[in-house]
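Backbone shape codes:
===
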Amino acid sequence: METFLIVCVMSKRVQIPFAIVSVYIFWGSTFVAIRYVAQLLHPAFISGLRYVIASAISMTYLLLRRRSIRLSELNWWQVALLGFVMFTINTTLVAYGSKVLSAGLIALFISSIPLFIAMLEVALPGGTSMNKTGWAGTFTGFAGLAILTSRSIRGQLLTSATAVACVALILAAAAWAVGSMLSQRMEIKASPLVSSIWQMLIAGSINLLIGLMSGGVRTSNWARGAWLATIYLAVIGSVGGCS
């Protein structure tokens, strides 16, 4: 939740490499888990169950700590909008694309989020443009991931299904970038943790409703592996991400 004890006692020299390793392991394994469970469950159920479970765990933690989880009336609408853009549109489209694309290719598409954010900053009134060093670093990072995932990209056949999945992932990355920009411009008085919990709960409920209305119960394979992967995504990908 707030900060793991082991991280608190680390020196700054140790915290940085620990954070980098955590990104590699947790962030990378999340896409592998999504790729696996996407073959079993409806895309909306993957994100819906994941966020409902994660928000329930996180909210229970806060309540046990007697922390306030209240939002103002204005913040309710802001949090609901952010949750819909970032946790409904983004993650449902990622799960959809994961049905046909490799985990490496999914990670490459999602790594374009900083590029979208940078372009939005330039386009929006009052935005802050990055300097040459920032642009160089952003493109270098994207190129580095492209090299790391080049083997899985070469093994991906180009079909109509993969083309649609690629478009879905581009839209997913753009949605997260839009949500990030909106969150920076909103004055949400609640803590980032409380805001994230409500975003996940609202979006997760919407996602489950989408899955139910589109016949996801009938088309999903509720095997044990699907539940284990979903719980992994909820605990490592979502609860860990809010910590």
Summary: Residues 7 and 201 are 27 Å apart (CA to CA).
